[in-house]
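Objective 1b: paired records.
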Amino acid sequence: MNELLGRQAPHSASAEQAVLGSMLIDPRCIADVIDKVRSQDFYIQQNREIFETMFAMFSYGQTIDPVTVLDQMKVRGVYKEGSSQQYLMELMQITPTAANVLEYAAIVRDRALLRGLAEAADEITNMVYEGAGQADEMLESAERKIYALRKDRNTGGLTPVSVVVQNVYNQLSEAASSESAIPGLTTGIADLDRTILGMGPGDLILVASRPGMGKTSIGLNMALHVAKTSHKTVAVFSLEMTREQLVTRLLAGEGLVDSQKLQTGRLSSDEWRRVSSAASILSATDLRIDDNPSLTVSDMNAQCRRLQDLGLVVVDYLQLMQSAGSGHSWSNESRTQAVSDISRMMKIMAKELGVPVLCLSQLSRANESRQNKRPMLSDLRESGAIEQDADVVIGLYREGYYDKECENPNEAEAIILKNRRGSTGTLKLMWLPEYTTFVSVSNRHDDE
């Protein structure tokens, strides 16, 4: 398009050459360079091929110098007889010094961002003039394109497997060097973390139960744990309870103060001290709450895109949400289809934001008529699409919910009904109703 209009796409050939020359002169700078630029940032094809070759060699711990790079270019099929060797020598000769490599890399990255912005602007303009959809749908699409640029991600297109292999290899290296045995964000429940391997980027995790079983409580437990341990932003969207109700629950759980007493304000001096301490801990986290009851997935996505260091999104709860993008109430459409649309958009949101989305969901009454009332996947209300889209589905169960006279009314079970990363099964938890919180049974024994 730019060529047809007589415009040249923004790029700096000399900066691209200086980056590559610096990497050849001083391989110690390569680690810094690959943090700043990607192969797609190079406009000139030959420069891109050389960078991809050195990037792969660095990822696999191979020695990098002009001879080994030429050899690998032959292996990768990007070597041009005669010209490639001469071009590498020229790169080293025209680079004044490797000391300024980050300045060169910044220029390459800046020009690539300008090209991406121009391309996104063209796509948005074409979309508007072609009339492809409603105005709010176009706005959502435009925001997604700009967000992808800001987050340094592609909005689509085919990616060579060699690039994906390098990404996976780097993730494995990071996991191996990490002190934690859990690759994802931890939930605060050790047994659960070991089973689902934490909450990974792009995961849609569903916690489902009957009303009053404690799904909001376990969702808040996980949200606060992530906010405290990862120091990232955690976004909580509450369609049922107010901000103040949620924070009251958090204070009760964190300060181990009876929630009913907390609401009356009739606390002992020791309880006031614990509440004050809990308030300080809560205030130090970047936990954000939206209690708008008429939110759609698009609304949530738009808010989350503007957060700088997002770690986790929590939604309470799925069946209360309005249909994706339409803003209509349930009466105007099939409830099952609406929930399916929301579920699909939640999974897309998780992938696009690159963070786990923890969604709370309500179970149907189907289990009430069974002898064994433990939840099953088919109990998910309007379940079809939800169980397909979710990576992990956890059902909460307490015998004491149905039988107050049972032996251990506060014993709870987290039943893993679906787990894309591993096994399913049942984990034992302890429900502490006075603090509206769950703890693992092992933690409970340790505390005692």
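Objective 1b, second protein:
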Amino acid sequence: MDELLGRRVPWSAEAEQGVLGSCLIDPACLPDVMNAVRASDFYLDQNREIFETIFGMFTYAMPVDPITVLDQMKIRGVFHEDSSQQYIRELMRVTPTAANVLKYAAIVRDQALLRNVIAVCDETREVAASGMGEAGEVLDLCEKKIYALRQDRVVGGLVPVGQVVQSVYNNISDLAASGLPIPGIPTGFRDVDRRIMGMNKGDLILVAARPGMGKTSIGLNIALNAAKSTGKTVAIFSLEMSREQLVTRFLSSEGMIPLGNLLTGQLSGEEWRSVGHACNVLGTTKIYLNDNPTLTVAEMNAQCRRLKDLGLVMIDYLQLMQASGSEHSWSNESRTQVVSDISRMMKIMAKELNVPVLCLSQLSRANEQRQNKRPMLSDLRESGSIEQDADIVMGLYREGYYSDECENPNQTEIIVLKNRHGETGTDFLAWVGEYTSFRDLDTRHAEG
């Protein structure tokens, strides 16, 4: 179509032939080539078919040479009697050496990216010209697709399972080589990490509790632990507390300084030193804060796309969020439906950004009516589809919240109510109220 319109299509015949010829001349370069280029990066159909054949043979550890490739092309039904054999010979003839194969692959990838940019711009132009959406929606569509290109991903479309298998295999190999006990970003709480396997890419993780139980505190603890342990960027959206309040909480938790002392400025010499140390620690993290209470999921998504090396998004809290930029009339649309839409959009955001999204949520009063007040999935306030969208749901329960006379008023149960990565169950944390912080609690005591 572009050629019919007189537009030059970005592609390099020499580079595409150089990649294929190198694979045929020296199969030892195949592992590097398979990591550097994909079949969809080839512009010419014939080149794409040959690469897909070689890719499949490499995946199943089959020997790769001109004869075996031609035979496999016949099996796959992409062999052309008049031209395939001659073209394979031509590929080997025009390739001077396989030593420069990664240079050829880089050119192929670069030209493919330029074609994809043109496609995104054309699609956005058509949508904008059609008048089928508001300007903000068209802008969001364009931004999503450009972000996907930056992340080396494609929005939508069918992907061959062989390509996914190779990606999963490479991921497993990387995990095995890393020696890390869990695949995801750690929460900083030992037993919780073991149960949920850390916070994994694309996961929507919900932490739910009654007001005053400590859901903001545990969210901030997890965010700070993630930023310190991974060095990645963490984005925090607080719809309830100001940036200054959040940082004060961070300083209290990190410096182990009573929150009341920080709020009044009545600090001892040792506490001032702790404040200085905590400020240095926070200053080295890549935590970004936004305390705009009117933010929508789309706006959060757009801001997160601009952050480099994003590792985690935290939102405090679900029921305060708006579904869209315009005011919703809840008489026409139930609040349950609005919250359901928000939870679905957050799950889409987690998948698109390819990072875990940690969202805090409020529990309804339903558990207050029961003798056993431990949270259940059905207690999620205005639950709608929250429990089906979330990959992991955790509830906080502290007996001391309801009774000062209990044996361990600071012992907190973190109850995993839903877990797509393993089993549900209960782990224990210690609530340190004066530092607004949670700590691991060792419940295994040795006798004597």
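The domain at 183-440 is CATH 3.40.50.300 (Rossmann fold). Residues 325-332 have pLDDT under 50 and may be disordered.
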